Amino acid sequence: MENFRHLTTDEIATLRSLGNRAEDWGRIAVAPDFEPAQLHDCRFEGEVRIGSRAVIDNARIRNYEIGAGTSVR
Hints:
By secondary structure, the protein is mostly beta strands. Helix content is 12%, strand content 40%. It contains 1 helix and 8 strands, in the order βαβββββββ. Strands 1, 2, 3, 5 and 7 form a 5-stranded mixed sheet that branches.
């Protein structure tokens, strides 16, 4: 099982610049080695957890955990 952490202010700014949106960025948890550049044009709603090396493009994610190494397109 992975440990998760909250996003940093810089990560949120990067995610926004890549077209990502969230109802509440405080409800998004990520793996310790999270790379914001791996997410593009996504909408996050509710509680969302994103695992290591997950790549997500053009998706709406709601109350879900994206596992490590998962690709959502």
